[in-house]
Design brief:
The chain is mainly α and 130 residues long. The chain folds into two domains: 74 residues, Serine Threonine Protein Phosphatase 5, Tetratricopeptide repeat (Alpha Horseshoe); 56 residues, no CATH class. Helices cover 78% and strands 0% of the residues. Helix 2 packs antiparallel against helix 3. The termini are far apart.
Length: 130
């Protein structure tokens, strides 16, 4: 299969995965995203989407794994949002100090900066309780 054929097939599976994700059918979405990854193994968006599925399914450890992998290929202009999601996966595992460390590195210009600050405060309160 030539490069444009791979891209086309990748896009097809990614879009199907996204549709299943939007419908809350996360397992089927992951399957479609995995098909897309077979065609373009370093596609940040696809790897990230799998992490999102796992986070929605209440499996933050798996989400963390995929978010970390996505970070290796992520363009700078999208890093803050991905770091925020990675922080959320750590937060959900009660790894509050690690999550705070990530949230604190999010740029003030980022669309998720205010959410990150809020999560820092919540995480600090949770640390004090334990």
């Amino acid at each position: 299969m030539n490069k444009s054929g791979k891209q086309s097939q990748h896009n097809h599976h990614y879009m199907l995965g996204d549709r299943f994700y939007q419908d809350g059918k996360y397992i089927v979405a992951i399957q479609e995203f995995e098909f897309a990854l077979q065609l373009l193994p370093n596609d940040t968006e696809t790897i990230w989407a799998i992490g999102d599925c796992y986070l929605e399914m209440g499996q933050p450890e798996m989400a963390e794994e995929y978010y970390k992998k996505a970070l290796t290929f992520c363009p700078l202009n999208k890093r803050d949002v991905l770091i925020y999601n990675l922080g959320n996966s750590l937060f959900d595992q009660m790894k509050y100090k690690e999550a705070i460390g990530l949230y604190e590195n999010i740029s003030k210009k980022s669309s998720v900066y205010k959410k990150a600050k809020k999560n820092i405060n919540v995480a600090k309160r949770k640390i004090l309780r334990y």
